[in-house]
Amino acid sequence: MSARSVRVALLGVTPTDAADLGAALNRTDPDVAWMVAADDSNRPHAVVDIVLCDSGSSVADAVARWPHAAVVAMVGMHDDGSGVVAALEAGAEICLRREDNLLAAAFIQSVARRRGLLASQGDPE
């Protein structure tokens, strides 16, 4: 099986978070080349598979910039639900509370799998 690559853009997330998330993704699925980059390194014409956003406004920006990408929104730990509603209305596929990077990595991996970006477990190697 050839190595797959999945491009993940982060909007409103710090470069340190990008490095931590990249490391978490590589621990979760080391057979995939996870390319994680903060917002400023992703041009609108760049191919992006999944976008991790920190707010409803960054979700709207992600949907406009990369209409074919899956959008995952992170909401605050104590969000009253309004952040979830705003992110979903702006176009996020799923929302999760800000937790650790392993949880975010697991969600991103599941989105990649559902979108067919990862080899299925039955693929020959």
Structural description of this entry:
The structure is a single chain. The protein has 125 residues and is α/β, with parallel strands linked by helices. The protein is 38% helix and 23% strand. It has a five-stranded parallel beta sheet, sandwiched between helices. Helix 1 crosses helix 4 (101-114) and helix 2 runs parallel beside helix 3. The protein starts with a strand and ends in an 11-residue tail after the last helix. Mean pLDDT is 82; it is low at 121-125.
Labels describing this entry:
single chain; alpha/beta; 38% helix; 5 strands
Strand order of the largest sheet: 2-1-3-4-5
Main beta sheet, described? 5 strands, parallel
Q: Residue-averaged pLDDT, rounded?
A: 82
Total strand segments: 5
Query: Residue ranges: pLDDT <50 for 5 or more in a row?
Result: 121-125
- The span between the termini is 4 Å
Which class do the helix and strand fractions yield? alpha/beta
The share of residues in extended strands comes to 15-25%
- Count of DSSP helices? 4
Question: Summarize this, please?
Answer:
With 125 residues, the chain is of the alpha/beta class.
Please render the helix and strand layout as text.
Layout: E1 4-11, H1 15-28, E2 32-38, E3 50-53, H2 56-65, E4 70-75, H3 82-90, E5 94-97, H4 101-114
Parallel strand pairs: 1-2, 1-3, 3-4, 4-5
Helix pairs in contact: 1-4, 2-3
